[in-house]
Structures are given as C-alpha cells and as structure tokens.
Amino acid sequence: MATAGGGSGADPGSRGLLRLLSFSVLLAGLFLDFEPDLLPLCPDVSFFTQPQPPTPQSKGTGLCRGNSVERKIYIPLNKTAPCVRLLNATHQIGCQSSISGDTGVIHVLEKEEDLQWVLTDGPNPPYMVLLESKHFTRDLMEKLKGRTSRIAGLAVSLTKPSPASGFSPSVQCPNDGFGVYSNSYGPEFAHCREIQWNSLGNGLAYEDFSFPIFLLEDENETKVIKQCYQDH
C-alpha cells in the first residue's frame, strides 16, 4: 500500500486494519477447531477467557477450554421413565408433550397445600412440578388436569420403600366388559360385582393428560433439582 509520500510502507491506520483482520482470522480458526465432545476435558473455564497456551489435554481443541452455555444451564437426567401416549380407534390415554417441548418454572411440591401455588397463586406459570411418588394420587392429578394452562409437566421422584398399602395405576376391574367380566358369563361376574380384585386401582393409566409426566429413578438427580429450587 502506498503512502502519501510515494513510499511503500503502510500507514498507521492500515497497520491497525491488518491487525484487526488478523485477529478476526485467529478467532475464526479457534471457533472452527472447537469440538463439543471434548468439553469434559475443560469443565471450569468460561468461553470468555483470554487465550491461554495449549496444554496436552487442550491442544487442538480451540475454545473447548470454555464450558458451553447449554452445559451451564441444563442438567441431563439419565434415569427416567416416561408416561407415553396410547391410542385406539376411538380414544387416547396417557401423556404427551408439546410438539416443540415444554418449559416451565420448577416447583417442588412437598405437601398437598403447596399445590395452591401451582394452580392459582404463583405469578410465573407454567410450572414444572416435582413431587414424591406418595403424592402421586388420583385426586391430585385431577386437580392438575383441570389447570393445564399452568402446568408444563410433572416429574415424580421414586421414593423407597414403596407404600406399604401398595399402588396400582390400573382400574379396579381390569378387562372390565371382556371375558368372564362380561354379561355373557352372568351378572354376578360382570364388572367385578362379585369380587373387586384390584381394590387399589386408581385408573390413572387410563386417563388422558396433555402434559408430560416422567418418573425420576435416580435419587441423586432428584437432589440436584431440589437443591436448585432451594437456592433460587
């Protein structure tokens, strides 16, 4: 580049522009070399730190020395069991999420009175409710089902030991209307009139819920969620 005096040296403004371009190329190279699956090598450094000399672990990983924003915000839940949607020719039962997923403010329900915050009092719906399996009753679920606009989902933590009285999400007369439980075998058998052999059945497995429901099987994962709720 020529100077005003006809020389071939670069003026200060041009040198500054060259430095800016070189810095941009360097940054582009760092981002292009970033490998997400190498993040576990560098869990404690932010994306916004100054470039550091490479170490044997971080050599060739570019900005992998910084944790991704996703890993700072989200906690993976690895041991879960989902409630699923079941269909037949006329009806649907079970649960489902929105087509783009569901997001809500976590609210830990430790006693049934806490439900009032979720249903009416809480100012920031929808809520993602976390409760222990002992609170997973038909009465509570019917209350949640009646206010679906305030419910983003439900997480049920597995508590041990299991309830001494037992638990069954099926109906009190399974296969009601079929086989020996139909009128063709006599009125004494139809609809379990003679013997209601599943007295604990609450019928939740045959209800239709428009929000997702998950069972959390790992006690440590449940503790992390509760700690986050208590801290914030």
From TrEMBL:
Residues 82-231 form the Nicastrin small lobe domain. Keywords: Glycoprotein, Membrane, Notch signaling pathway, Signal, Transmembrane, Transmembrane helix. Its main location: membrane. It is found in: Membrane. Residues 1-29 form the signal peptide. One of its GO terms (biological process) is Notch receptor processing. It is a single-pass type I membrane protein. InterPro entries: Ncstrn_small, Nicastrin. Pfam families: Ncstrn_small. One of its GO terms (cellular component) is plasma membrane. It comes from the Eukaryota. Coiled coil: none annotated. Belongs to the nicastrin family. PANTHER family: NICASTRIN. This is Nicastrin.
